[in-house]
Amino acid sequence: MKTEMLGMILAGGQGTRLGKLTKNIAKPAVPFGGRYRIIDFTLSNCVNSGIKNVGIVTQYQPLALNNHIGNGSSWGLDGIDSGVTILQPFSSSDGEKWFEGTAHAIYQNIAFIDQMDPQYVLILSGDHIYKMNYEAMLEEHIANNASLTVAVIEVPLKEASRFGIMNTDDNQRIIEFDEKPAEPKSNLASMGIYIFNWGRLRNVLLDSYSKDGQMLDFGKHVIPSYLEADENVYAYHFDGYWKDVGTIDSLWEANMEFIGLENALNMRDKNWRIYSKNNISPPHFITKTASVKTSLIVDGCFISGTITDSILSTGVKVKSGSTIENSVIMPGAVIGKNVQIKNAIIGENAIIGDNSVVYNENEIEVIGYSEVIGVQSDED
Questions:
Q1: Which domains does the chain have, with CATH numbers?
Q2: Are 134 and 45 in contact (CB under 8 A)?
Q3: Keyword Nucleotide-binding, does the record have it (predicted)?
Q4: Which residues are annotated as part of the binding site for alpha-D-glucose 1-phosphate?
């Protein structure tokens, strides 16, 4: 059967600005919010928008990401007419192996897309935190008779030079695209979310790679070529919460914004759930000497210290006398006795020894995956 719209999630980025946190895993697999991984938001948006088939393009350190996604059952993508497919680089007859850009990654997977036979292709990033109805975007794409629709969000004008900026006419048709302009003409930043008419995009990519192979990136190459060819390219305005967690500061900020009943993502909305693969763990346990204030505590945690304005992910252990404030503790981390942690991110399975201090008044302190700091006693 023909697929109306196929979702393609680009999840192969290394995320070098996250430093230690992406040394051994891809950025979309980085834990978030205690119970989730970053890619869960994009995947859940697909499912909630009625997109039943999704391809996930991976490249850098994909093992943890592949294990997390599995057969897609955690998102209900394991049915007869639905599925999730992991698409990794492979050696072809022309010798190409690695994906050299976002558009090149789609070109390399034309065979998969043709197999699904979609009318539209939705291109997504796997490393943003947000909720978005892609079906509403498709409806606007069809109403505009667009060849390409680009999701945009308003950003402060002083920050616009960090983004790809779309300049539109009164009908929201994009007439100009500036990649990180020194003097931006508008504040409409591209979110890296695109809906293409597949037949047209397919021809553009095949034509390019039969000639010069210059269509490597959507922002730098494909969108400008569409505008140059006078294609119908429109902006789709998004006004909800959206966070690019590409830096340590932005990842920490997004986690801190996640705490509390009134967080902008409204995680208790039963009509738009964020799904994830969750390991079965025992209930968390808080000792009588412990104190927990305005924090998120996930299953499997053991707490004998003081937790304030923080997130403790699955299976975290905090021993007596320790204080954690304004911090994110990722799954499996063990915090020793009399430890002080403030404004920090502690990586998965890290061990913080007794009497250690993890705090830097000038920046967010980061402890890497399985990193060991100090010496820990065997006692709780």
A1: 3-259 (3.90.550.10), 285-373 (2.160.10.10)
A2: yes
A3: yes
A4: 164, 179-180, 190
